[in-house]
Amino acid sequence: MALGSILLLGIVFAAYSPALRGTFLWDDHGHVPDRSGFYTLSGLSQIWRQPGYTQQYYPLTFTTVWLAHHLWGVHPLGYHALTVLFHGFNAILLFLLLDGLGCPGSWWGALLFALHPVEVESVAWISEIKNTQSTLFYLSALTLYLRSSDRGGWKTYLLAFAIYLGALASKTVACTWPAVVLVLVWYRNGRVCRKEFFRLSPFFGVGVLMALVTAGFEEKILGAIGPAWEFTGLERICLAGRAFWFYIGKLFRPYPLIFNYPLWDVHRVGPADAFRVLAVMMSYGVLWKGRRRWGNGPFAAFAIFGIGLSPALGFVNFYPMRYSFVADHFQYQAGISLMALAAAGVCRLLRGGSNRLLPPAVFGLLAAGLGGMTWHYAHAYRDPEALYKDVLSKNPASMMALESLAAYLVENNRIAEARAYLREAEQLHPQDIYAQTALAHLRILCDQDYQGAIPSFERASREIGRFPVMHSTQMAAYYFHAVLAEAYFQTRRYPEAKAELQDLLLLLPPLTARAYYDTSPSAMTAASRRIHDRLATVLALEGNFKAANAHRQWVLDHMTDGVRR
Questions:
Q1: How far is the CA of 402 from the CAs of 299, 391, 395, 420, 480, in angstroms?
Q2: Which conformational region is residue 223 in: left (phi greater than 0), alpha (psi within -120 to 50 degrees), or beta?
Q3: Considering only CA atoms, which of 281, 267, 276 is closest in space to residue 246?
Q4: Within a 10 A sphere around the Cβ of 468, how many other Cβ atoms?
Q5: Nearest residue to 327 (alpha-carbon basis) of 87, 125, 473
Q6: What share of the chain is helix, strand, coil (3-state, %, to 5)?
Q7: Are 24 and 126 in contact (CB under 8 A)?
Q8: Angle at alpha carbon of residue 337, lines to 335 and 343, rounded to 5°
Q9: How many CA atoms lie within 13 A of 421 on its CB side?
Q10: For 315, how many CA atoms within 13 A lie in the half-sphere containing its CB?
Q11: 288 conformational bin, left if phi > 0, alpha if psi -120 to 50, beta if neither
C-alpha cells in the first residue's frame, strides 16, 4: 500500500510537470493578493474575522496562501507545487478510502482520478488551490467518520468533525459531505439508521450555514445578481439537466476541455431540455431497480455524483455564470465516484479471464492516454496568453478570453493586438459595457481620443447604476466615473467634470469599508487626494477660487503616508 501511494504521488508530479512552470492566471490576483497589510498578523486575523476581506470567505485557504507567502513570496512555482502536492495526496486518500470500502480496483480508480485531464483546471490553476485543499480535508474526514461509525469512539468522530470544518473553511462545496456519508453508509449496510442522522446533524447544520454565507458572498461581494442571473424555475431545472449530462460526457470523452465553455441560451426551453431532465430521473430509477442485479455500487456512485454537483447545477447563483454555466473544476470532487465506479466495473468484467496481465494492461493503456492528455493540456496553463488563446481556439466567442487577453496584451505594450481582440469582443457582444469601455479606454491610452471615449463611458455609467449596489458594481462605477471625469476635463467640459468628480467623492466611503482589492486607508486617501486636486483645478478654471483653495488645503492636510488625520 505504501508503494502504491508513493507511485501515485510520483505519477501526479510527472503528469503535471508543465504546470509547475506556469505563472499567475485569471483571477489569481484575488487568491494570492498583492496588497498592503495582507501578509501581516493583522491581515491573518482579518482573514478569519472580517468576511469581505478576501474575495470569498474561505479562511483556511487564504491562511494557506498567507503561510506560503512567508515561505516563498509571490513566486508562482511554490503555489503550483503545493496544489499539485494536494492533488497527489487526494489520489492517495481516495485509494485508501476505496480500499477500506472494499471497492474492486481501488488503486486503479485513484489512478484515473490522478490522471484524468478534466482535473487539470483544478490542479494547474492556482486559484483552485481551494478545490484541492478542500478535497484533502473532505476525503480525510470521510475516512475518519466511516471508521468512527464502524468502531465507535467520540475522539475519531470529533476529529472527523474538525477536519470537515477544515474542508468547509477551504471551499464550501464541501457542504455536500454529510449527504455523501449517508449514501456511503447505505452502500455498505443497505440501510441508514436514525442514529446516523443524529450523528450527522452537526455536520448538516454547519454545512448549510456555510453554504448560505457563500451564496451571499457570490451575490453581494462578487456580483452574481442582475439580468445575467435571472432565470425561471423551469429554466433552472432544464439547465441542471443539461449540465448533469455535460459533466458525465466530459468524464468519458474529455475533449475538448476549455477553460471557458460557451455560454448556453437557457431561456429557450425545448423538447431536448425536457428529455435530458427525464433521462436523469430515469437513470436513477433504473439503477435503483437494478440493485439486486448490480449491487448498491452503481446507484451509490451516481447518487454521490449528483450530490457533489448540486451546488454547481444552476439552482443557486454563482459569479462564473456570467461567462459559462459549466466549468471543469466544478466536478473535481463529484467526478471521483464515477471514476471509482468505472474502475470497479472494468475489474469485474476482466476478473473472470485467464490472463492475469489483462487488467493491468487495460488500465495501463487507459492511464497512458489520460496522462498524455493531462500533460499536454497542462501546457495551456503556462501563462495568460497561452490560456486565453487556447480558449479562443475552441470557443472563439468567449467574452472572458477576448477581454482578458486584450488586457494582458495592453499590460505588455502590445497595443495593436489588444485593439483587434477588443474590437472582436465589441462586435460579438455589443451589449457588454465592459468590452466597450475597455476599447474606449484603449483609444485614450493610444490616441488621446477622450472625445471618442465619452459615449461608451456615459452609457456604462448609466447602466451600472441599474445594477444592485454591491462591491463589484461599486468598483466598476468608480472606474467608469473616474475615466469619464478625466475625459470631460481634457475636452474642457468643466461642469460635467465637476459633477463626475463630486460623484467620485460619494463613491469612495462605501469602498473604504471593503478590504477586497486594495481599499486600505492609505490607498483610499491617495485616491481622495487625486480627486480633490483635480476638483480644485476645475473650480479654479470656473473662477471659484475659494472652493478651489478649500480642496487644495484638503490635499495638503492629507499628504501623509497612511491614514487620514
A1: 42, 9, 10, 9, 20
A2: left
A3: 276
A4: 10
A5: 125
A6: 75, 0, 25
A7: yes
A8: 105
A9: 24
A10: 12
A11: alpha
Q: Along the chain (565 residues), what's the average pLDDT of each consecutive run of 10 residues? A: 91 96 91 84 92 88 96 94 98 96 94 97 97 98 91 88 97 96 94 92 96 85 77 95 97 96 93 96 96 94 97 90 93 96 90 73 93 97 96 94 90 88 85 81 84 90 70 76 92 93 82 55 79 92 91 84 42
**Residue 271 parent element (H or E):** helix 271-289
User: Residue 463 has which C-alpha cell?
Assistant: 447602466
Return the DSSP state at 430.
Answer: T
By the 10 Å C-beta count (0-12 exposed, 13-18 middle, 19+ buried), 90 is classed as buried
Please provide the size of the chain in residues: 565
Q: Are 102 and 31 in contact (CB under 8 A)?
A: no
Where does residue 512 rank: exposed (0-12), middle (13-18), buried (19+ CB within 10 A)? middle
Q: Are 450 and 480 in contact (CB under 8 A)?
A: no
Nearest to 93 by CA among 142, 165, 160: 142
In one letter, which amino acid is 538? V
* Burial classification of residue 265, based on how many CB atoms lie within 10 Å of its CB (0-12 exposed, 13-18 middle, 19 or more buried): exposed
Q: Interhelix angle for 76-100 vs 129-151, to 10°? A: 30
Tell me the CA end-to-end span of the chain in Å, nearest whole number: 64
Domains by residue range for the chain, with CATH: 14-330+358-381 (no CATH), 384-507 (1.25.40.10)
CA 160 from chain centre, in angstroms, equals 26
> Global pTM?
0.90
The DSSP letter of residue 561 is S
The packing angle between helices 76-100 and 2-15, to 10°, is 140
* The three cell numbers locating residue 428: 460579438
